[in-house]
Amino acid sequence: MRHTRRLVAGSLAAGALALSLTGCGNSVDPIERLGRKTTEAQQSPTATPSQSATAGAPGDEAYKKWGLSAPLQFAPKPAQKPALAPAVPGKAQVVDRIPVPATDKVVFLTFDDGAEKDPEFLKMAADLKLPISMFLTDNIASSDYGHFEKLRDNGSGSTINNHTLTHPNLRTLPFAAQKKEICGQQEHLEKRFGAKPTRFRPPYGNYNDDTLKAASECGISQVILWRVSMQINNFQYAEGSALKPGDIILAHFRGPSELKGATEIQMTTRMLQRIQEQGYRIGRLEEYL
Length: 289
Ligand SMILES: [Zn+2]
Fold this sequence. Notes:
By secondary structure, the protein is of the alpha/beta class. It has a single domain (75-288), classed as Alpha-Beta Barrel (TIM Barrel). The chain is 31% helix and 13% strand. Strand 5, helix 8 (209-217) and strand 6 (222-224) form a beta-alpha-beta unit. Helix 7 runs parallel beside helix 8. The longest helix has 19 residues, at 175-193. Bound molecules: zinc ion (ZN). Zinc ion binds at residues 1, 3, 112-113, 163, 167, 203.
């Protein structure tokens, strides 16, 4: 179920993540607070890190619990949605990067397939308020769709989207078979989660004109691709060697059997560290589409 089989060399030291048990449940919504903090910091160039960090709120400690050295920065909802390439009638629109201004260092988190269903990951995603756009494949994720429902409903703005029934390479299939893969998962997701998604990701990023027409007939308005994929320790870039503003990051719900022994949490911590090292904020993809 890999989108790519190239894995970055290197291994994680076992137990490298020291987890403290700092409590973080309170009435303050960390994501709202972080969003306002970001805005205030932008509007007040004289603000120092110590001034912009609100002391004493338990939610601020969540980042330490999950192995980060600083709080994540979240992008506020954009005042205007970036202008995408015009949609073609009868075809789903293809989006592989959000065309934000070059100075807007925002990236977006997407997780695919649904193999790993680690309850600890649900705690991490909730604590850190990660907005995750999920692309779920029925025969991989459906053994516990409840796991992904919890992730969707944790208050971080995560969403559930279509990634086919069985994860085929759609380019090898005729139109009718492609439509069955896409519409079939639309029906499963609607039955299980109450609504048909409007966004779809083709397995391996492989699609053709039939895919875009079939997706449109299944009620999909946008096909979401990516330019950066998270491996075990580092990103793999489609071009260049760094994140670019508006990048959509692909990660997977994967566990130790697919990550050379690393856990989903370790992989995600590394990903968030890389985002922080490059000075990026995390946005909610759906707010930009
Ligand atoms: Zn996939």
